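Hi R.,

Here's the chain you asked about this morning:
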Amino acid sequence: MIRVVALCVIRNKDQILVMEHRDPATQLTHYRPVGGTLEYGEKSMETVAREVWEEIGAGLTNLRFLKVIENVFKVKPHGLEIGHTIDFIYEADLVDKSLYSKSLIEGVEGTEKFRVLWISLHEFKGTNKYHLVPDGLLELLEETM
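And here is the predicted structure, written out as tokens:
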């Protein structure tokens, strides 16, 4: 099944706001911009604004489309199963400027809580510590700096 997702890149100088997720299948931690799955009949721009509001309680301004990234990835160790997403990538600014000075924001999706934090783009390069998804996003962000 292909999942259609809208993600919002929010920059703070050389950092981006990302949510932290530990994959229970692979036991790996990865990071991605805040966002989520499109609902039936919803446009991707509406999804990204809704998801940012639902997950971190923040409004957006200057919302602009960057690119679509198609991502095929392993969801289980040793490549036993794959995932497939079509990711609409947007960039925006936060309405609440105080969020730019917070090192950690608590995110919520339903009853699940997660960490949302600012990480410098160079931390994602050539390191196993921080893995930015979807694949290809780091290169896109470096091109648009």
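One quick note: Residues 2-143 form a domain with the Nucleoside Triphosphate Pyrophosphohydrolase fold (CATH 3.90.79.10).

Cheers,
M.
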